[in-house]
Amino acid sequence: MDLDVYVTAHRAEWDRLDHLLRRGGKLTGAEADELVSLYQRTATHLSIVQSRTPDPMLTARLTQLVARARATVTGTRRSSWRDAVRFLTAGFPAAVYRSRHWWIPTAVLSTLLAALIGWWIGTHPEVQASMGAPADLREMTRPGGQYETYYSSHPAASFAAQVWTNNAQAAAMCLVLGVFLGIPVLGVLFLNMLNLGVGIGLMSSAGRLDVFLGLVLPHGLLELTAVFVAAGTGLRLGWTVIDPGPTTRRAALAEQGRAAVGMAIGLALVLFVSGLIEGFVTPSGLPTWARITIGIAAETAFLVYVYVLGGRASRAGDTGDLEEADRSATLPTAA
Asked: Alpha-carbon torsion 101, 215, 282, 147, what sign?
């Protein structure tokens, strides 16, 4: 394509669009229709220039024109409480529901890995010996030892805030780093399962696995589910790089990336709840059965939330992506 000829053929349309945009709201009905038509044609021109003869200066001008025209055509929309309610009742649970084929297998395999690591450490004294001196291990696993006092070592409020911050960062890392083919996500997930497996192995070797599970399960069910959802979503994002499906790789990554950002916000709220449980319920004087019941109730509530609200929103077509008016314009790929 001869770029000079193409510019000469369409310059008048671009100048006319720029003129209409400068007039703002002082347009007649016919001029408004003309603006919409010119916006659509200019978007097509931009796509053609980008794909066939990418000229930086021309691309920059047309991109600016298309962006200004889109803002004029669609208008500026401010976020409201309605958006927050929609996100919590439809967008976020739908995104979690739609990614269930990724995070459920992730949860099952990760739990099996933690159990395997725990069994290996718990049944092999030589492995335990390589992890620390016998006196140090006894100090960690004895009644009133480090595993038990960990949850009450700081004031409940500050401990809950610290736990929430750490877990939210881990979940965000899984979501953000998933774009690197999901490889960093596997590393984050393995470290989490390794820590859990070490606790299982050492406490089981001391004959106190029931105590350990009584401390972990109240908050761990919801906390680990959030981590598994984040990891599964990150892996799904990584797979999108490999196989974007019927759309272009850029469009597929943009859709999955926007959903992942929303997922990060939603999971931060879920982890806030698990942090409250870890800070106030886990170290409390409640009986073990009561603490575990609270953890099961929180986990059940989250799963019902995802499968009922999320399933309903997903079947209605919600993907967890932004509203169409809030997305960047999708440019055509052919003339």
From this structure: negative
